[in-house]
Amino acid sequence: MQQEQQLTHIDEQGDVRMVDVSAKPDTQRVAVAEGFISMDPTTLDLIVEGRAAKGDVLACARVAGIMAAKSASTLIPMCHPLNITKAKVECTPVHAGERSDDLVGIHVLATAGVTGKTGIEMEALTAASVACLTVYDMCKAVDRGMQIGEIRLLRKEGGKSGLWERA
Question: What sequence ranges are listed for the domain Molybdopterin cofactor biosynthesis C (MoaC) (predicted)?
Fold first, then answer.
């Protein structure tokens, strides 16, 4: 049975707060998150062949994801601003038959790192989310039915809780 955890962003009176991390030591922390945007195969072909009207979709999504990692604390109210030391976003086309559910689209893998007092999970998750949103924005004129999903943390390491990996 899993030990009951306290919500750290709620104080004794039930009010939200930003956690005070000032007494925590700096440690190296890395988080990896993923997302997937499914689409019509013809939309994927446009992206892969570089024929999207707005330009290089995957390059733009990578840059947007990195920018998002650096901006997570401006989007998420209780997220600490971090001096990110690493941000990488990979966007991989997924063709028919490459997944068990046979979805076609773009798989996004976002990695963020920091040496600091608190985690980097929100930055990696934000990067993956915004990279997927950017693909949607750049291709919505030809495929409004695209669907974003599977935004999730895959791995986090560092800090007091150490290593966590999705099973």
Answer: 18-159
87, 112 Cβ separation under 8 angstroms: yes
Is 78 annotated to bind ligand? yes
CB-based burial, 136-151: b 16+ in 10 Å, e otherwise: bebbeeebeebebebb
**Coil, strand, or helix at residue 75?**
helix
Question: 28: how many CB neighbours lie within 10 A of its CB?
Answer: 14
Q: Which of 36, 111, 29 is nearest to 69 (CA)?
A: 111
DSSP codes, 95-141: -TTSSTT---EEEEEEEEEEEESS--HHHHHHHHHHHHHHHHHHHTT
Q: Is the pTM of this model over 0.85?
A: yes
* Structural domains for the chain: 27-165 (3.30.70.640)
CB 84 within 8 A of CB 112: yes
Helix (H, G, I), strand (E, B) or coil at 41: helix
* Catalytic residue ranges: 137
Q: What is the pLDDT of residues 94-152, one digit of tens each?
A: 999 999 999 999 999 999 999 999 989 999 999 999 999 999 999 999 999 999 999 99
Q: Known binder of ligand: residue 146?
A: no
Establish whether 39 is an annotated binding residue. no
